[in-house]
Design brief:
Blueprint: E1 6-9, E2 15-18, H1 21-36, H2 42-48, E3 50-51
Antiparallel strand pairs: 1-2, 1-3
Length: 52
């Protein structure tokens, strides 16, 4: 059985989709830091995620 794809989308429209939750979290955390000067916890990102 394949893993569910998960997606997180920033309020600016940046989006990442992956079957690897760790990758989604890392990419969104990096984006938030680099583009918005905001720190996000793993739980912050998980709250944004949805299965696609």
């Amino acid at each position: 059985m394949s893993k569910a794809m998960q997606q997180a989308t920033c309020s600016c429209g940046f989006s990442v989709t992956s079957g690897d939750e760790d990758e989604v979290v890392a990419v969104i955390q990096t984006h938030a830091h680099d583009e918005h000067k905001k720190e996000m916890t793993r739980n912050d990102v998980r709250a944004m995620m949805k299965d696609v």
